[in-house]
Amino acid sequence: xxxxxxxxxxxxxxxxxxxxxxxxxxxxxxxxxxxxxxxxxxxxxxxxxxxxxxxxxxxxxxxxxxxxxxxxxxxxxxxxxxxxxxxxxxxxxxxxxxxxxxxxxxxxxxxxxxxxxxxxxxxxxxxxxxxxxxxxxxxxxxxxxxxxxxxxxxxxxxxxxxxxxxxxxxxxxxxxxxxxxxxxxxxxxxxxxxxxxxxxxxxxxxxxxxxxxxxxxxxxxxxxxxxxxxxxxxxxxxxxxxxxxxxxxxxxxxxxxxxxxxxxxxxxxxxxxxxxxxxxxxxxxxxxxxxxxxxxxxxxxxxxxxxxxxxxxxxxxxxxxxxxxxxxxxxxxxxxxxxxxxxxxxxxxxxxxxxxxxxxxxxxxxxxxxxxxxxxxxxxxxxxxxxxxxxxxxxxxxxxxxxxxxxxxxxxxxxxxxxxxxxxxxxxxx
Length: 430
Hints:
Helices cover 4% and strands 41% of the residues. It is built from one helix and 33 strands.
């Protein structure tokens, strides 16, 4: 799959050896080009986990044929968002296999889109935990890459670690729970600990695995709750408050901040809501999250509390056009939201007061992202909407259609976008 100079064999007539000065100039140009590229999009919602990209020159207009560098059909079905490290792209998928599905991780060549390798992680689903919602898949959690390793998570069906060339380093299926509508939350990695939420219909807990071995480091049950619906699909967010790291993990009826090394609870806030999907964002000393179903609210929580801080540390609540599925996007003192029903809005991040609201056509599951002062939305029917990241008013830049179902969030690679549909993965760039 890979080549190096030794693969070329001995130099032959016609091969020009460049002068050292020329080589130095070329090296400098390559360094400048690399500096203009975006950081690796190595986890759900990018390098910071909150939907921000440093990329320059991303496309704003495309179609099925315009500005498509490549389109690669993907076997099976999965709604994990793509990630990229260097010239490799990774995603997961569930492939029908008789009466069940096998769970796979794929690596694609970023330049050509060709599949480099396809590794089967688990041959079969656990049959008593195989039911999913029509909008879900058996491969919805997004992979995570770090330090030459790739971590893939399939919720109740297991977790694994691979090298970037596809060798399985460890895998485990020890954490068993009964999901409601399937699994969805992605993992987060902090100081050698892989943390994810396990909020099923029967039991609800947060678990941490040793990233080197896959062994359980800690497991903490959610706070008690008398609400009938306790399942959720939340993705934790790692933050740092006063020099101490926290893992903020939203679940049904509670959001809890944990110590990543011990699992000890730092603070918690109670709310009414379940089936929580959006990943929190953090800034201005506040954690912003949505309580999801049935009546979604956006909460802003001061992050410096201890114990149950429901009555003392909720800075504000806002229910107007709150999302149940897409994550919020924080840019300075502006909090941008896209509701499942297609209402885009901007709130004052410090007070929760609405700045503007605008109806965007379509329904939404994918989380928004921002680059170069532009916010990118992707609807469930594959239509993108791009508008300016300003709190003054809604200013639309472009709309683009692919007419393929799309529930995964966008990823950024160099000067391009990775867009996954139910049929294929696209690399879109100018």
